Amino acid sequence: MISQVFILSSKGDHLIYKDFRGEAGSDVVNKFYEMVTALPGDQPPVVMKHKELHYVHIRQGGLYWVATTKADSSPFTIIEFLNRLTALIKDYCGCLSEKSVRMNFALIYEVLDEVVDFGYVQTTSTEILKNFIQTEAVSSKPLSLFDISNVGLFGADTQQSKVAPSAAATRPIMSSSGEQGSKNEIFVDVIERLSVVIGANGVLMKADIEGEIRVKCYTPSCSEMRIGLNEEFSIGKSQLRGYGAAVRVDECSFHQAVRLDEFDTYRILKVCPSQGEQTVMQYQLCDDLPTAPPFRLFSSIERDSVGRLLIYLKLRCDLPPKSAAINVCITIPVPKGSLSLSKELSSPDQSAELQPQNKAVHWEIPRFPGGAHLSALFKLEVPGLSSASLQEVGSVSLSFELPKYTCTGLQIRFLRLSPIQPGVSQRWVRYVTHSDSYTIRI
Amino acid sequence: MLRRVWSIHRCYGKGCSPLLSWTTLTTIFLQQLLQHHFMAPVSLYFGIPTKESSGEEQLQLSLPGLCEYVEQPLTVGLKDKAACVRRVAVLGWAKIHSLLPNSEIDAAIVNELYGLLRDPDPVVMVNCLRALEEILQEEGGVAINKPIAHHLLNRLKECDVWGQSEVLAILQRYRPRSEDELFDILSLLDPSLLSHHAPVMAATLRLFLSLCATLPAVCLSALERVRGPLLAAAGSSSRELRYAALCHIQLLLRSDPGLMGEHYKRFFCGYAEPPYIKQSKIQVLVELVNDDNVGMVLDELKGYCTDVSMETSQAAINAIGSIGRSYSERCLDILTGLLELKQEHITSAVVQTLKELVWLSPLCGDAVCTALERWDDQLQDAQGRGALLWLLGVYGDRVSGAPYILEDFIAGVRSEVSAEVKAELLTATLRMYLSHPAETQDMMGRLLHYCIEEELDMCVRDQALLYYRLLHCGIEEVRRVLQGGRRSDLSLGPLIGRPPEPISQWASIFNTLESLTLGSSTVVNSDPSTPTAYTPNINTLMSSGDPDLTACSHGALSLSASPSLSPEEFERLWLQPEKGACLEAGVPCPVPSCSSESLQVALQLVNIQMLAFTPANKHPWKVYIYTHSSNTFISEGSRRPSQHLTSDGSRTPPQTLTSEGPRTPPQTLTSEGSRTPPQTLTSEGPRTPPQTLTSEGPRTPPQTLILAELLQVDREREEEPEERGKKGGVLVRMRQYPGDQTVLTGFLSVLTTVLQTLSAQPDHTHS
């Protein structure tokens, strides 16, 4: 059972405080902030204890979401509850930020009242909650400039072949009948997280993909939706069927509301999406990528005659020529005490800087088309450079986003609503691959 | 308020009854009334929203008179048509109970709540459980009998994630009547083990472990089943969930070390992960190392050593050190390579790790000496300096430049703040004096003078005085005290690999918050050489020990574990059987189910030294032991403590100083920091327990050396008539140099008694 739930900003401001059982005073909020900020680096912060009271917290959207409990409850339950709470509030408020929480505090209290009673979680399904939640969200409009620059972040394949602005899915699920409100949209996102380790000799040492299909539905009541996956989709090693381009995953799990009667033969998921966001399918693939990993790195590191450290990097993007990686950020660890950096980059839109506190050089590439090569030369001034210092240039990490691309090759063939509703006009399918951790050893 | 009425009305609109029930109206008006009268938020009563700004004190009403007004609508509310009213009403009783703990809740209400367990709405059912649990707290919570348990199990599927985990937790109280029922329940729960909702999966596993506490095999297969979901949770996009899963994986590995072996790559750290996740992943990786993946894991760990976060890099260095106990060469290469980075926190961590490593595997000494030879760093933190001084003291005779490093320390002793470092410096200097007297004498004089005349810390001063007086007793005495047990027992080396703990050791904290707060303390527990968890077991063995045990060791046959034998010697002798006597015999008792540590302690009680054993998950189980015997009768009287003084000085360490009880090696390790002078001496003392020394007989009869290999007999071979025993027997192969058949049979009987005593005590390991 949960004693209190509160939300703090990263600076420690109290945003939301709700006491369910009256077991502990409200001074716990300040106590929590004291504890979490004073924690030494080797202490895990997730669960803390002070005077018989356990504090469990998660960090989302730059905020602390804290639940306190006296009983020794299940950590999985409390953490999952907090995660679910953030997802709910994201659905209702559009996005998670200090500003949106501040603006929608009444709505959040209302959600909390319905979700938890006397410290016991009652329900977290939007299907039931929509009967009770009446307050409308106040959405904070993001700057329109920001909106324009991000068009095309997500590609969209729809019958009209239009492109949805990336902010389209970050509006509250319940909006007033004006302006955007009439839009009964459904977004189906295929999101994959890639974690890769490539050895110094170029051998792929580890490659994991964790993927999920998320449905975000803005329609208050939606009829059954049929999501058709690739017909060659197979699960596990034994089930290889057909020839050639089979899409294979190791493990696959579905939301309990998904009906799978046509999955075995036609690879169709049937689901009645409730309002808000939900994950209908999760899948994993380990160690067996169907395509080459998206980036290769060729590097040479040496000391020049003046005692500077020269790092020459050549990065190749192995995506198909139509795709491109965006927001590529490469982090190169450099020896401690590096003073200054001089760089030679291949195009002016790239940038690179030395971050001494992280002992790293950050090289940013806004857009990197498939099949292209980019190279960079970094010259670092390191006092007292020894040959051992070269060891510190250990492994290069990349973070990037691959829009309109899935590494497993999973595609959504079709998206049908049956029976077809007159109101529902727009269905969007979006694909994106994020780098969870992409490491290349030098 | 009206909004609330409206929303409930909408609820009704969806259901069968279009009418707003009376109860709802009364409840809501009562609520409104209370709010107006007392001007205080009473949301506690009904969970009806009362907005308060964050941080505002929530007033609690505990007016006895108030309840009269509330009870009546609550009673009616239990029978309401709308499920959402029943949900609120059921929990309302729990609220009344918590506000007025002294008031008796009517038995009729309790009965009605029990009846509502059959409510069609799953949330009402779960709320009834929650309410009864609170109301009946004094009686031990809600009573779960067979019909209730089966009802709950059958309706589990209807509940949502939160309800399921709650019901599963409460079901732990139920004990199935028969084995058939138990297995029915287990097969019903089996799909939930694979649930991709981590709360359900964890609650199910906890229930499994509590139901099958007496069936370890079922528990182990349940652990196998949850591997997939747990690994998925460990790769979840929520960091906190990832961390929770990692902590629980560590628990599982304590009992089934081979569980995640092939999935080690899942525990490679992501670049952007927060340090606490990286550190727990590193801890898991250490557990997963085996011959196949050691190269990959070390490569990965090496990368973490230069992490931006100091704690992570220290954790990685420690991890390499722990792997070095089994794969010393590769790890030493990495560790000594790290020294060349000349980064202080890395160097300090490496020195501390090396100190632990050479203690556990003394064969690494050479590499450490080469590293010390090139030493020219400055360390700032006390632990690092202490460890460096310890290494200098122990390996001073093999490092030519050592006195000069020490000289810098002595020159700076005035500015040294840490008493531990000063104490370590004293010991190191005295040891150095033994190996390099000419270089050290002068600086030692200065150090002793400073410590005795000017030092303010009593412990350091006492230690200096003790050394000063010791020096007066002559160099031989100093050598005996300081060098006696200065190197670790060689037999400690192969004792690696932690035996799996019984599941019951951690089942009680599985899926509780405690498992996550263990955090840093699990590091201590995961240290293979810390047998804290087994001490009760050892104690019971000692106290309830079979009288035969002591009779055997002190009667007809006298065994002694010293002098120690190195693994190489053992191997050499073992492979030339023609020289001595051989004997092979089956012991009709199962392989002891206790941990190898307890077996080791048990064998040490009868002065048999364990040299090596297979990791517990390996099959077949094998143990190598050795002992020395002298076939003499020792009377009680002749085992006087005065023997210590007459015993061979060069061989035996200074027993006179070890006045304390048996010191197990890990204890000495932790007290290695030499906090107080007497402790330093004892901790440098012999590693073998005093029993070994007391039973060391007169030196006159020629000692014989007995080597033995204990081998688990396979189940297939069990069918042969001569190998009896329910769970397979133990085959003992013995070698003796020089041969003496009667001694061998005597040794066999001692060994049999130990094994049988141990296998007769499986309850202790599981309770």
Automatic annotation (TrEMBL), chain A:
<dbReference type="GO" id="GO:0005905">
    <property type="term" value="C:clathrin-coated pit"/>
</dbReference>
<dbReference type="Pfam" id="PF00928">
    <property type="entry name" value="Adap_comp_sub"/>
</dbReference>
<keyword id="KW-0472">Membrane</keyword>
<keyword id="KW-0813">Transport</keyword>
<dbReference type="InterPro" id="IPR001392">
    <property type="entry name" value="Clathrin_mu"/>
</dbReference>
<dbReference type="Pfam" id="PF01217">
    <property type="entry name" value="Clat_adaptor_s"/>
</dbReference>
<keyword id="KW-0653">Protein transport</keyword>
<dbReference type="InterPro" id="IPR036168">
    <property type="entry name" value="AP2_Mu_C_sf"/>
</dbReference>
<dbReference type="GO" id="GO:0030131">
    <property type="term" value="C:clathrin adaptor complex"/>
</dbReference>
<dbReference type="InterPro" id="IPR028565">
    <property type="entry name" value="MHD"/>
</dbReference>
<comment type="similarity">
    <text>Belongs to the adaptor complexes medium subunit family.</text>
</comment>
<protein>
    <recommendedName>
        <fullName>MHD domain-containing protein</fullName>
    </recommendedName>
</protein>
<feature type="domain" description="MHD">
    <location>
        <begin position="183"/>
        <end position="441"/>
    </location>
</feature>
<dbReference type="InterPro" id="IPR011012">
    <property type="entry name" value="Longin-like_dom_sf"/>
</dbReference>
<keyword id="KW-0168">Coated pit</keyword>
<dbReference type="GO" id="GO:0006886">
    <property type="term" value="P:intracellular protein transport"/>
</dbReference>
<dbReference type="InterPro" id="IPR022775">
    <property type="entry name" value="AP_mu_sigma_su"/>
</dbReference>
<dbReference type="InterPro" id="IPR050431">
    <property type="entry name" value="Adaptor_comp_med_subunit"/>
</dbReference>
UniProtKB/TrEMBL annotation, chain B:
<feature type="domain" description="Beta-adaptin appendage C-terminal subdomain">
    <location>
        <begin position="557"/>
        <end position="756"/>
    </location>
</feature>
<dbReference type="GO" id="GO:0012505">
    <property type="term" value="C:endomembrane system"/>
</dbReference>
<dbReference type="InterPro" id="IPR011989">
    <property type="entry name" value="ARM-like"/>
</dbReference>
<dbReference type="InterPro" id="IPR016024">
    <property type="entry name" value="ARM-type_fold"/>
</dbReference>
<keyword id="KW-0653">Protein transport</keyword>
<keyword id="KW-0813">Transport</keyword>
<feature type="region of interest" description="Disordered">
    <location>
        <begin position="633"/>
        <end position="703"/>
    </location>
</feature>
<feature type="compositionally biased region" description="Polar residues">
    <location>
        <begin position="643"/>
        <end position="697"/>
    </location>
</feature>
<dbReference type="InterPro" id="IPR002553">
    <property type="entry name" value="Clathrin/coatomer_adapt-like_N"/>
</dbReference>
<dbReference type="InterPro" id="IPR026739">
    <property type="entry name" value="AP_beta"/>
</dbReference>
<dbReference type="Pfam" id="PF01602">
    <property type="entry name" value="Adaptin_N"/>
</dbReference>
<dbReference type="GO" id="GO:0015031">
    <property type="term" value="P:protein transport"/>
</dbReference>
<comment type="similarity">
    <text>Belongs to the adaptor complexes large subunit family.</text>
</comment>
<dbReference type="InterPro" id="IPR012295">
    <property type="entry name" value="TBP_dom_sf"/>
</dbReference>
<dbReference type="GO" id="GO:0005737">
    <property type="term" value="C:cytoplasm"/>
</dbReference>
<dbReference type="InterPro" id="IPR015151">
    <property type="entry name" value="B-adaptin_app_sub_C"/>
</dbReference>
<protein>
    <recommendedName>
        <fullName>Beta-adaptin appendage C-terminal subdomain domain-containing protein</fullName>
    </recommendedName>
</protein>
<dbReference type="Pfam" id="PF09066">
    <property type="entry name" value="B2-adapt-app_C"/>
</dbReference>
<keyword id="KW-0472">Membrane</keyword>
